[in-house]
Amino acid sequence: MSIKDANQGSLRPEISGVALPDTVHTDAGGMEKSPIESDLLLSLYRTLIEPPDLASGLWSALEIVCRFAGWDVGTAWLPTEDKQALKLFVSWHQDDPSLEEFVKFSRVQAFPRDVDMPGRVWERRAVEWTSDLAGQDPKSFPLAKYAISAGIKAALGVPILHESYVVGVLLFYTRGVKEEDENLVRVVSRVATQLGFALRHKLTEEDLRSHEAMLRRSRDELEMRVSERTVQLKVANEALHAEIFERKRIQEEMQARARQQEAVAAIGERALSAATLASLYDAVCERVARTLGVEFCEILELQPDGETLLLRAGVGWNQGVVGRATVAAGRQSQAGYTLASNAPVIVEDLTRETRFSGPPLLRDHGVVSGMSVMIPGSGRPFGVLGAHSSKRRKFQTEDIHFLESVAHILAAAIERRKSEGAIRKSESWLRSLVATTQDAVVSIDRRGCVALFNQGAQRIFGYSAEELVGRKVNVLMAEPYAAEHDGYIARYETTGEAHAIGRIRTVTARRKDGTLFPIELSVTEIEVDEDVHYAAFIRDISEKTRLQQQLVESEKLAAIGGTAAKIGHEIANPLNGIYLTLQLVEQRLGKQPSDDPRVAADIVKIKKEIARLNQLVQEFRTLSRQQDYHFRLTDVGALIADILDIQQPLCESNGILVRCAIAADVPAARVDEDKIKQALLNVIKNAGEAMPKGGTLSVAVRGADDTVLIEISDTGGGIPADTDVFAPFFTTKKEGTGLGLIIVRQIVSAHGGAIFYDSQPGKGTTFHIMLPRDPSAGLRQ
To answer: Could you read off the pLDDT of 389-414 as tens digits, one per residue?
Structure first.
């Protein structure tokens, strides 16, 4: 029947034998509920709670809902143990073979979140109604074709909610065409919510039943043991004919067992709270001796040689014995026999013992009876725990069990302390490694705030740990990484989609002073810490990048040099021939002057072109030859002053004002004076030629640490953007070869220095030359 029929009262359904009244109820939210709906919820709750198991209750609930709403199939889907998928838990359907086949197929399916209707309802926590399965995309409804084969046309999926969690999904199918009905959705949603509460109640109930069953088994076992003990007592009473005495003995035994259990509990607590193993050993020996009523207790530790056992702790022994006395670990002693047999050893009378002889430690203290058990260890036994008496005594099985329990507590405590020590050592080693490594180690929390900033990071980035801890890690990043980093974290936390985690990437970072530099970045996720969630290992590859660029440049220059050598060789000889021929022509014209004045002018032009080509050949040879450098300590400031004195007249004739600022603290540097003079003269000439209409040529020289910094500026037209003036054969001059700056950089690099420039079109250019005082040390850019 439909909800509409039920609300109009045209039919009065009966659910599980419960007649539904006509009164209207109101839920906690103020929404009116029909009497059918209220009794439906009550009937469902009873149906789910009363059956002995969850499957029966859910099956009955599905039947009630299907019969109430007129659906042909009802299924309940619950999460798997790993919460990664939904599996069909129980189903109800009309008696029909095709529906049975559909349900059988559904049972073998498992749907992750957002897959098919069960997965989507689970993931989205929302009702989904499909009126026409045949018209749906098979990719979105993998079960659709099987449902259609069974004649199913419509489906409704509802989440089973408990508080704010989806604990399962209900799916209903019908062979009839059903358009989405808000009232029906509301009723079924309330049913699902009620089922969520009842389902959680049922699961809790089943857990309680499981615990009760376990308690019953424990009680039965205890009763069985008590029964067995009772039988034994009766037999003993009959044998000794002393029932009163036997009862007293049994009572004393029970009290002794209770004392032993209490002692085991107390020793266990002490094992967890003891500050040191030594204090634990002392407490154990004292408690064992008192509980068993013996004068002596010992903890013997097997020594590394495996041949002896050291009396590590004990009570009752003579002063000065503990910590010094040893016992042989072979089978000739009680302790050694215990280790060899790997079983408890009980001695009723040491003087009559045939398995081994009493060691001096026991004989010297008048020991008569005793028992000993092995203290287990990792890889090999730790030692032996023993209890002894100077009086003849028959120890019971329970006494051995008590002693074994204590030995196992000792073993666990010893292993835990060893593990804690190993962990502390590992943590100390890791902290030392993080603190001393030259690379940066930075850890952040889930919000992207810095939690750890090691010495390497402080050295590389220029921040102190106090400045950065608690701040966003974005300050260490260049754009666009800085702006996008928070989004990376949020997306990874939500989707698990990783971009940087688990890979080594080369990116650009930012120092405290704002300079950008290349780094190698490796990020890993820390799964054991709730606060610190990510760790980054960062290596500054500025030097590596510089060396790579220098290598590429060297290879490029080598290739150019090789080509230049061939070209120079091919040009030089013909060029000499042309020049000699031109001189002969010039001599003949001197003897027989030409009537055409243009001939002399042409000869001058040819001689200029030959000179230009000859200069090009010389530059080719400079590039191709391995240059010899002779370094000696030189006053670079004086060298620059000499160059400017030479260029001063030419600059003044071209309307160029020369300004020179040489700092007083400029250090002397080891340079090849001729080569560095050639390089500086080339740059100064270029600066003058960049100002054909006059301007200002400025040269500044200063010292910085172990470096000489030279800046040569002009006020010319500047260098166009996206232009590499160090590219081979690039020139802005009509008569330039495009090789001069390559040679300049080659000379500067040979000195371990660097050259770069900055330029503003229309305002001029500044070349920066950095020379180390000692070329063998080189420069870090």
So the answer is: 999 998 988 899 999 999 999 999 99
DSSP assignment of 425-462: HHHHHHHHHHHH-SSEEEEEETTSBEEEE-HHHHHHH-
* C-beta neighbour count of 442 within 10 angstroms: 23
Count of all residues that appear for the chain in the document = 781
- Report d(CA 442, CA 159) in Å as an integer: 43
Which positions ≥6 away from 726 have C-beta within 8 Å?
741, 742, 745
Assigned token pair, 486? 């928070």
DSSP-derived letter for residue 472 is B
Burial of 750-764, coded b for 16+ CB within 10 Å and e otherwise, reads bbbbbbebebeeeeb
Measure the CA–CA gap between 554 and 250, rounded to whole angstroms: 98
Tally of CB atoms within 10 A around 604:
10
Burial bucket for residue 199 (CB in 10 Å: 0-12, 13-18, 19+): buried
* Cα–Cα distance for residue pair 285/388, rounded to 1 Å: 11
Other beta carbons within 10 Å of 319: 5
Nearest to 491 by CA among 483, 499, 503: 499
- What is the layout of strands, in order, in the sheet containing 73-79? 110-111, 86-93, 73-79, 165-174, 154-162, 128-130
Residue 430 exposure: Cα atoms within 13 Å on the Cβ side: 7
Q: How many CB atoms lie within 10 A of CB 774?
A: 13
- The SS3 assignment for 114 reads coil
Enter the pTM of the model: 0.38
Helix 740-750 to helix 597-624 angle (10° resolution) is: 30
CA distance 35 to 51: 24
Provide CB contacts within 8 A for 536, sequence distance 6+: 440, 441, 442, 443, 444, 473, 521, 522, 523, 524
d(CA 74, CA 96): 14
Q: Express each pLDDT in 297-319 by its tens digit.
A: 999 999 999 999 999 999 999 99
CA distances for 534 relative to 473, 477, 502, angstroms? 11, 16, 11
Please tell me the distance from the alpha carbon of residue 683 to that of residue 742, in angstroms, as a whole number: 11
